[in-house]
Design a protein that fits this description.
The structure is a single chain. The chain is mostly helical and about 160 residues long. About 70% of the residues lie in helices and about 0% in strands. It is built from 6 helices and no strands.
């Protein structure tokens, strides 16, 4: 985040009062809700996969992928309190975001697809449909915050 450009509209906001804390109750509540939504989605993926598949390794793989991608989407979503994930890529220049995102995705793919690594972590390879589901539910875990930002900025 240190390489993140400041929000272009930050100078249009009123300054924070001296008596106000740097982190207010709104930020704490949003952070707790974000963490809870990722936890809930990750737990649901684990629970549903255990019910539908007879493989602990596959359930572990689906759960790990969901947790990693949800956190990745959470980082991307929190880059701006005003812009959507997609708009922040266009309006804010952070040269580290793309390499870090690709590195995280690459590590996930390596852990799931390279037999030596998958066996080391008791993971199993996912099929295309499972990857699509994991990406969808991971994005869904943070999409409520994207909607919240849109509603807040339309006021």
């Amino acid at each position: 985040f240190e390489a993140e450009e400041p929000d272009k509209k930050s100078m249009e906001r009123l300054p924070r009062g001296k008596s106000k804390s740097l982190v207010g109750s709104r930020e704490v509540i949003i952070g707790v809700l974000q963490g809870f939504s990722v936890l809930l989605v990750t737990f649901l993926v684990y629970w549903i996969s255990l019910l539908n598949y007879n493989s602990e390794e596959l359930s572990r793989s689906l759960t790990y992928a969901t947790l990693l991608l949800s956190n990745l989407f959470l980082v991307l979503s929190n880059r701006s309190q005003r812009l959507s994930i997609f708009a922040s890529f266009k309006e804010r220049n952070n040269p580290a975001i793309l390499p870090i995102t690709l590195l995280a995705a690459g590590i996930l793919l390596a852990l799931l697809n390279i037999p030596f690594l998958a066996e080391s972590f008791d993971l199993e390879q996912l099929n295309f449909q499972q990857y699509v589901i994991v990406i969808f539910v991971s994005f869904a875990s943070v999409s409520w915050y994207e909607i919240y930002k849109k509603l807040q900025n339309s006021k």
